[in-house]
Amino acid sequence: MKLFAVFGNPIKHSKSPVIHKLFAKQTGILQNYIKINVPINNFSQSIINFFQNGGLGANITVPFKKEAYKICDILTNRAKYSRTVNTIKITNSKKILGDNTDGIGLLKDLKNLNFITSKSNILLLGAGGAAQGIVYSLIKFGCNITIVNRTYQHAKNIVQYFKNIKKINCLKIEHLLNHLFNQINYDIIINATSSSMKGDIPNIPLSIIKPNVFCYDLFYENGNTPFLKWCVSHGVKNISDGIGMLIEQAAYAFYLWHGIMPDTKKIIIQYKKKIFDINHFSF
Question: Do the beta carbons of residue 43 and residue 67 sit within 8 Å?
Fold first, then answer.
């Protein structure tokens, strides 16, 4: 049976095996998909051992996405521009092919939700690896992106990397309300910070949160995240967590490995019904 895995540390919480089990059942593809907890300083050797022992592909999660980028022989454009890799495949010539499906997975979910158009103005909160991994797909779709981050220099670094693309800029948080610096009305606010994981809310002005804005949190949990609860409490009607993105990015990984795209809309429905009942799945 074909062997695949997700690599991370910690990895116990990963829902990837659940999702790929649903994909395999839907498409009729036999595969064994496992979780591998990798020692922090042993990623490269662990992935090499996995492929030497018959592994054909892998998903990479925190904190190894940048390290995965460095070990690849071939990179897709999505991986090149994000400078991080979350999906790896061994080619027929035994080369390591790296891709990043986070951005395209987010874009697909935003389309499914009818949150986005090619002319959307996006306020992106955060400038870490999560933000870096999604910028390319959103820009390529046509959106304008403004990045704000607690450390302004990190936001500037991402903008500098995309310096030849005019659809991205950054602001200091304190300038969001200053019309001299910020003359944009935002259609979508995406939380790519780790605030929800810590039970916190991003440090942004309340006046940015308007009833007609679409608010999206890359993080997810059973119920609304702290960011989304805060948005709803201030009148926002359209919100979503990152469950759809999680499934869509996994589907693009599955497609890279098998050449078949799962019907993700059906999978999302199944997943949301069953994910919090562990009796339905073997983790």
Answer: yes
